[in-house]
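Recall from the previous lesson that a structure prediction takes nothing but the amino acid sequence as input. Here we apply that procedure to Diacylglycerol kinase from Thauera humireducens. The sequence below is the only information supplied.
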Amino acid sequence: MDDNFRSQWIGSDSAHRAAMSAPRLDPAAPLLFVINAGAGALDLEAKQAVIRRALAEYGRKGELLACEPADLGRGATEAAAAAAARGTAVVAVGGDGSLNTVAQAAHAAGCPMGVIPYGTFNYFARTHGIATEPDAAARQLMDASPMPVQVGAINDRIFLVNASLGAYPELLQDREAWKARFGRSRWVAFVAACATLLRAQRRLRLHIETATTVRDVQTLTLFVGNNRLQLQQVGVDPEDTLAGTPGDGSMAALMLRPIGTMSMLGLMLRGAMGRLGDAAGVETFEFRHMVVRPRLATRRKVFVVAFDGEVTRMRAPIDIRVLDKPLYLLQASGAGGRASAPEAAA
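The prediction returns the following tokens.
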């Protein structure tokens, strides 16, 4: 392992990120709302009504930009640039995938970002004390302040909740097909996940480098978590081996070893019970910077990857790291890092 690799992770901690200057936020400037018109069960008019009620109640101004999913990236980029120029914030209205798109733009532009969640799981919102009920989340925004939160990067894309290679991206693709057929619910997502994992057979043969280890592995999936709530729900919160915790100073990696069908059923049961970390076929560890390559030079150099529910292809090497530059999230005073007990157990 060379010194350049080591130097890229040393000093990347939450104290360093928190010390950076927060972007300015002019309370008189209109908030810019980027609405995913295709996310969630409620129609566009209902989402706009939620925002307008909160603005009227608090005497704030806002501009509402509705985007179809295909236009969300362009709309978020334009809104974030305008927010940075005006000293205001861009607000993402949608699920975790929509939040990621807006976060990419806000992080690049250097403006604060707010969240009104409409997703199935809403891990990012819940981890940072943002209400999952849209009316309550919209009201929280009205007197919130920008606070630094950790983001990860996989190659040139940031992620808020998780990133992965192998079976998990396939699971996400299958889950979307199941949702289109049977509707959006956590039970549909769970059944789709079971169906995918039971037929998962393709092994990843990977060469992995972190700051402390270099090794070759075989795994069905490499999953990286930047959200402690999600990790805790399935029981794979790793032991603290680095300063900070996943989502606040480090990230967690989970590797699922190739196993048979009956063992896979046992793993899924443990995951549903929040005890996945107890299983013999699962390995977890903490890191700040990890580089992943195909183990053999003759093997494929393009991986199917997922981040925050979005699936794409990336060329190896796959570089995954905690970024020094934080995302500045609008949070109500004292709300950071909290999730309601009923939802955290869901």
